[in-house]
Amino acid sequence: MTPPAPPSIDILALGNAIVDVLSHVDESVIDGLPVNKGGMTLVGAEEAESLYGTLGPGVECSGGSAANTVVGAAMLGARTAFIGRVRDDHLGRVFTHDIRAAGVRFDTPPATGGPKTAVCLVMVTPDAHRTMCTYLGASIEMGPDDVDEALVRDSAVLYLEGYLWDPPGAKEAMRKAVRIARGEGRAVALSLSDPFCVDRHRDDFLDLVDADVDILFANEGEITSLYGTDDLDDAIHALTPLVKVAAITRSEHGALVIGDGDVHIIPAEPVTRVVDTTGAGDLFAAGFLTGWTQGRTLHDCGRMGAVAAAEVIGHLGARPEADLRALVTERVPR
Amino acid sequence: MTPPAPPSIDILALGNAIVDVLSHVDESVIDGLPVNKGGMTLVGAEEAESLYGTLGPGVECSGGSAANTVVGAAMLGARTAFIGRVRDDHLGRVFTHDIRAAGVRFDTPPATGGPKTAVCLVMVTPDAHRTMCTYLGASIEMGPDDVDEALVRDSAVLYLEGYLWDPPGAKEAMRKAVRIARGEGRAVALSLSDPFCVDRHRDDFLDLVDADVDILFANEGEITSLYGTDDLDDAIHALTPLVKVAAITRSEHGALVIGDGDVHIIPAEPVTRVVDTTGAGDLFAAGFLTGWTQGRTLHDCGRMGAVAAAEVIGHLGARPEADLRALVTERVPR
Prior knowledge:
Two copies of one chain form a homodimer.
Chain A lengths: L8 E6 L3 E7 L2 H5 L8 E3 L2 H10 L4 E4 L2 H11 L4 E4 L6 H12 L3 E2 L11 E7 L5 E6 L13 H5 L1 E7 L6 H16 L3 E5 L3 H6 L1 H10 L3 E5 H7 L5 H8 L5 E5 L5 E5 L2 E5 L13 H14 L4 H15 L11 H8 L3
Parallel strand pairs in A: 1-5, 1-9, 2-7, 3-8, 5-6, 9-10, 10-11, 11-12
Antiparallel strand pairs in A: 2-4, 7-8, 12-13, 13-14
């Protein structure tokens, strides 16, 4: 048997294709809503419309967790692709334009009927934390047929967002992609996305981490939620035998990268002013995975993640504005 | 004859209702386009679509010069209203949501047919300067019927953007509004908007400044273009006898406020990092006019303009993100 050809894509992401509408709100707004502060709550079309009506002026910016990650990775020089579903409406065209313009291959055809392109109302409180309400819209339409088998085989890393467990068809799409990737000996990476999302799908996540995940991204809240513990060390002990690499992000305390039998302590990158934490985890994964596909050390991968995350929290929105590649070249030299 | 009742609106603006799509570009992109760097070029629908296709990822944010000004003024506590025309499409709803959410009264009904809501492709170069291509779209539909006579009579200041001379119907709307405002003894303020716009409509601008303008906003390029001179002092000498107040903005050199027989030199407000100059002039006018309607000194009005302008150039987009009112209270105490 001949070994598989070297992949021509570094990172292929599956995710919900979402446009964010970001606005500043007071803490009292969050207190008055049936949402989890700092988390993501799913809402219906009417609920989203009515909430939007109550919010202040917004900024629209393409988002979606895994989409943000491949955009960041592309900006760092990685060869990337994305699978996700929009509709053929204004926001679908915006999402498609933005991800392609960043250099990400994106060929999933837009839905020509059914729900509108997904939107996420991102409410940023004065502490710079974000609370999100997502209307999944056309993301609900994603299914196994959207997974291009050749593309998965041709990608070094298959990257999945935990949010994909929310739309039912997407879950099937993800399982198909995982099966293909593992069959080809590719790496499977997963971000747990959100502690409440972990709550909704704990057993599925535990199975996937146990059986299929090589690289896991999580923050403290997500990993302790996964293992039903309050203690980070306990969660890490439960996790360590199951995955090759785990990156646990800890906001201003930096990150822990566990792998190669070691725990690497990654300091947070200094930030002048934290404006909006939206996308911090997504961009950490972007930096980390780009380093990983470039054969950097785990410590350097973690540092690259920290530099990319620091850029995105310095402004509104989850897509980088600065020249990420120049930042990483300067801050994490080879 | 009884004197008119005190106005219930501080600032009423007439302007093009536009949604901005902001993206970062290299200098070479601007060099390769038939546009004026730092200026605004009008483009058709197809031209806008094709240019958008070549640009990098974007951020969508409500804009429009005079609309930005009343939004800033509303955030500073002024009672404001806006007249401008969108279509009943996605971007029209975004524009309407954002301006109303900022506290600006906006009742112009959207067009139900014809061209789409106006968009401005704002290209931000690494020097933080912006070059704009505007598709006027539904703004072309604005006309005298959109000017609510009672609203104009009820507003202390009528504020006009020079860009209104580009769509033919808007010019008529503006003339009607000026006639009503002057009949009621209200102040008329004008921003010259853009040196190339001044070039296109010099005689009209000269007539209006001569006959009707009380408060003029211009930057160095615009005011020297208006009087066909390279010398700022010459332009100021030509202008001074014609208006009550003139505010000449000079980027990092601050501003000159001419009025009450004096020239007030306003230093620029310190900025940590200039990210995007889009909206600097609009927000200067917002701060200035808010001060003016509050009876502040001309020097304080200029300082309020400088503080508001400094906020908006610290991030991407022409609408303020920070608490402008708190900034002004701190930086320009009574």
